[in-house]
Amino acid sequence: MKNWNPITTEEQVREIVEKSNEKPQIIFKDSVTCGISAYAKERLVSGNDVLIAKADFNYLDLLSYRSVSNFIAEELSVIHQSPQIIVLKNGEVVYRVSHHSIQAEDIAKYL
C-alpha cells in the first residue's frame, strides 16, 4: 500500500477530481474495523499492479475521516457505502462498486 495516497481533507478530494482530467483516479473508502472491508482491501492489494499501472490510487480511512467521506458522497453524488471504490475520469465518476463486488480486474476495465 506504499503507493496508495492517503486522503485526509476535502481539498485533497477536489485535487483528485482535478487530477482525473489527466489520469484516472481511484478512491478506496475503507472501514478499518469491518471484515468486508478487510476482504476487499486484500483483493485490491493482490491486484494492485493492474490498477497502479493505469491510475492513481487514493485511500480514505473513513472512520478517521468521516466528514471527508461525507464530502465525497455529496461532491461526487454517490451514495455512501463501505467499503467502496469510486473511479474518476475527466472529472466524472465512471464506475463505483462496493462490498464483495470490489475486484481489481473489474475496476481496471474502467481505467
Automatic annotation (TrEMBL):
- InterPro entries, per database record: BrxC (IPR022551), Thioredoxin-like_sf (IPR036249)
Highest taxon of source: Bacteria
Read off the Pfam families from this record.
BrxC
The protein here is known as Bacillithiol system protein YtxJ
Gene source species: Flavobacterium cheniae
